[in-house]
Amino acid sequence: MKILFCIFVFFLTLNATTIQDINIISNDELIEISFILDRKFDSKVVKQDSTSFSTIILKDTNYNKNKILAQTKLIRQIEIFQQNNDVYVIFAVENFNLYFSFEVLSADNILKILITPKDTITSSLLSNPSNSLESAISGIKNQTSIQNLPSNNPSQLESWRYAAVISILVALLIALVIIKRKMKSQNMEFSYFQKPLSKYKGNANISINRVVNIDLNNKIIVLDSGNFQYMLFIGQHNSFIIDRIEHKQNDVYDSFTKLLEHKEAKLSSLLKEYK
């Protein structure tokens, strides 16, 4: 059994791709790991992630040299070693997928792994502390310049809406004031008396027939105008017309007292209020 196992491992070694050399190039914007192979790479590349580090595994690959430890500006430590029949590339950084992206390129007998930082302010703060403040300020300025465009600024649109609403309200107030002044100049409050009088050829003059004082501030007035007689309530805070009666009905009502008694149903609530 031991002999068969050794033969099996020997054949696996023969079929595996061997790494002859490894080159690591890094700067502020890129980490490039190049693997020089003895033949074209035809195995799988697997990526595994954890909270404290991220691993790229080259399946069925041999690396017979010592473990490699490298420090870069973007990632504090990179470790490359072989375990069983696989080669492990470990990146000692938390939340790798949040701050970095990787790409695997293969051509002839060269395999390259490219690590680039994602364009976020947070990643620049964590991965490059020496220039973190300048990068953060420049990133904030760029975002502010984009947000200040008129087409994408909701606060500016809201201010225009408020200004438009205020302008409409001011215009309505001015129109109401003008209408009110015209009505006062034309004595429009007496239009109720003037319009019906145009239908008759009788006397259009208005005269006071009776005045009844309810108290010091409120009274009832009976007006004669043309063919009609009007009963008005004149109060301190309000005035209105109680009723309108044709003069031919006055034969039925001999006196103003009987007229009030006839209209008692309408005046009861008003008289109770001012008694």
Q: List the strand order in the largest sheet.
A: 5-1-2-10-9
Gyration radius, to the nearest Å? Answer: 50 Å
What global shape is seen? Answer: rod-shaped
CATH class term of the largest domain: Mainly Beta
**Total of DSSP H or I helical runs spanning 4+ residues:** 8
Number of strands: 14
Write down the overall mean pLDDT: 75
End-to-end distance: 124 Å
Q: What structural class should be given to the helix and strand makeup?
A: alpha+beta
Name the helix and strand elements from N-terminus to C-terminus, one letter apiece.
HEEEEEEEEHEEHHHHEEEEHH
Describe the main β-sheet briefly. 5 strands, mixed
- The CATH architecture category of the largest domain equals Sandwich
Strand content: 25-35%
CATH topology of the largest domain: Immunoglobulin-like
User: Could you name the ranges where pLDDT drops below 50 across 5 or more consecutive residues?
Assistant: 8-12, 144-150, 190-202
Helix percentage range: 25-40%
Count of separate structural domains: 3
What is the topological layout?
Layout lengths: L1 H14 L1 E10 L4 E7 L7 E5 L4 E5 L2 E2 L5 E3 L7 E6 L2 E6 L4 H4 E8 L2 E8 L3 H7 L4 H16 L6 H32 L5 H7 L8 E8 L5 E7 L2 E7 L4 E8 L9 H7 L1 H11 L1
Parallel strand pairs: 1-5
Antiparallel strand pairs: 1-2, 2-10, 3-4, 4-8, 6-7, 7-8, 9-10, 11-12, 12-13, 13-14
